[in-house]
């Protein structure tokens, strides 16, 4: 294993640990201002400004070598998917809590990843074999245990 991989793993876990805090902050911003859509916009605006500053500081070229019009139209969906996740999180975290929100996001990610891997969408094909499906069932069970839908809030 390369020496930087453990540090990268720690960074990803730390970033993941901050996602519930981001949802809670955005929900509070929405409650104190014009709502979840406004808060989601502000979240993306701040993130865009930060990433723009990092691009400038790193002297990364702002435009790719190929013209943007040459890129496939679906390539722009990444930003739309991210925005929908931030908006959904901002709307739902006050209603279901940070723990349930994260569990449902992880469940959606696992199910989506299994499907994308199984059909080889934009990457190598990996079959959704019984062991991987069993892992998804365990994630589902974990989400149910965290959410406890049988108990009233």
Automatic annotation (TrEMBL):
Q: Where are the transmembrane segments?
A: 37-62, 74-93, 99-119, 131-150
Give the protein name, as stated in the record.
DMT family transporter
Matching InterPro entries: YdcZ
Keywords tagged on the record:
Membrane, Transmembrane, Transmembrane helix
């Amino acid at each position: 294993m390369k020496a930087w991989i453990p540090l990268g793993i720690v960074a990803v876990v730390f970033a993941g640990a901050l996602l519930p805090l981001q949802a809670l902050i955005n929900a509070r911003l929405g409650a104190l201002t014009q709502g979840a859509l406004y808060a989601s916009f502000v979240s993306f605006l701040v993130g865009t400004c930060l990433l723009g500053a990092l691009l400038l500081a790193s002297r990364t070229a702002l435009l790719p070598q190929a013209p943007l019009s040459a890129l496939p139209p679906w390539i722009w969906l990444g930003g739309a998917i991210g925005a929908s996740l931030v908006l959904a999180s901002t709307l739902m975290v006050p209603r279901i809590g940070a723990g349930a929100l994260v569990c449902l996001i992880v469940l959606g990610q696992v199910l989506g990843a299994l499907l994308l891997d199984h059909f080889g969408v934009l990457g190598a094909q990996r079959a959704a074999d019984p062991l991987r499906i069993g892992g998804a069932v365990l994630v589902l069970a974990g989400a149910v245990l965290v959410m406890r839908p049988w108990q009233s809030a």
